[in-house]
Task: inverse folding
């Protein structure tokens, strides 16, 4: 990876940019590639002593950051369609909701979210 976007540069969760790159709302990467880059990023953070947590904790933070980011994006895409008349963004909701659905399925404490999506979306 060699692209860095400083457009909204602020201090935030260390997983935010990684989620933004690997689970983008407009493109899908194979899960094997996502796992590889998450592992690589974690290893570099550890090498540079930028974090002090386990890989499991880091992966959980990555997953939860993705859920938060994607739920926000789904809301924005809906607003763009229904308030602003920009229909094209609604086409990205299926991919984005799938990120949330898959993540919720993998974490038992997110089961209410998983069940909600399963019942009302799928």
Result:
């Amino acid at each position: 990876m060699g692209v860095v976007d400083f457009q909204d540069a602020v201090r935030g969760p260390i997983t935010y940019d990684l989620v933004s790159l690997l689970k983008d709302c407009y493109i899908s990467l194979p899960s094997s590639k996502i796992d590889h880059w998450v592992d690589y990023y974690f290893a570099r953070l550890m090498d540079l002593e930028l974090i002090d947590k386990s890989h499991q904790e880091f992966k959980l933070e990555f997953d939860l950051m993705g859920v938060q980011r994607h739920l926000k994006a789904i809301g924005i895409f809906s607003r763009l369609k229904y308030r602003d008349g920009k229909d094209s963004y609604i086409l990205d909701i299926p991919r984005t909701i799938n990120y949330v659905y898959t993540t919720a399925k993998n974490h038992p404490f997110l089961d209410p979210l998983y069940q909600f999506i399963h019942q009302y979306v799928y």
